[in-house]
Amino acid sequence: MRAVLVANPKGGAGKTTLATNLSGYFANQKRSVTLCDLDRQQSALRWMAFRDPAMAPVSGFFAGNQMVANLPRESDWVVMDAPAGFQGFKLSDYLRVVDKVVVPLVPSVFDMAATEDFLNSIRHEMRGRKGVVGIVAMRVDPRTKAAGMLEEFLKHFDIPIITYLRNTQNYVNVAAGGLSVFDPPRGRHRRDLEQWEPLLDWLGN
Ligand SMILES: Nc1ncnc2c1ncn2[C@@H]1O[C@H](COP(=O)(O)OP(=O)(O)OP(=O)(O)O)[C@@H](O)[C@H]1O
Ligand SMILES: [Mg+2]
Fold first, then answer.
1. How remote is the CA of residue 89 from the centroid of ligand 2, in Å?
2. Cα-to-centroid distance, 16 and ligand 2 (Å)
3. Which pTM was predicted?
4. What is the pLDDT of residues 175-198, one digit of tens each?
């Protein structure tokens, strides 16, 4: 089992979007994947409920009040969708058992400010474990001023930007059908799939 935690305390940063699409990717790679929903709002599980049974299967469970003892070790991959405000001892507990932490971050001053303490605390907790934490710049074109601002901000933390995902209704549309950009018809999402490649490589898949 390999486990990825998708987390950022800021609401709406793109955690569920990343977690559901990543689960869709592993499923389409014929890996067994469990999407572990840590959020009381259960958006990830709602996505699963919409999912067409003809699509590559994703298992799911709600882990809102659980600590990590109950991870589904039989899965090839466990993808954890953290809620907004996920921090403190619960965050520490999960950080101990995950292989990777993916932090979606929108380059706005509000999002960056809300994420600063979180990045400091995961950097502190993960010291000695290199290459475990990565940022996914959300809803941004890497050639823009906003992207430059994000890069500048991240220099303080020594955490790499793994990839940039553009702002597109594709993510909104696939989510509505319990799908990911990796489910057929994939041709429609060609540009998005290219943007995911650095993240999939970084996860070591
Ligand atoms: N790259 C993108 N382009 C366009 N829309 C996006 C993109 N990423 C996410 N969204 C949309 O932004 C909204 C918030 O995303 P999402 O629900 O994934 O964030 P979240 O971090 O899980 O939020 P919460 O903190 O409430 O759990 C959703 O409507 C989602 O469809
Ligand atoms: Mg969410």
1. 20
2. 4
3. 0.97
4. 999 999 999 998 899 999 999 999
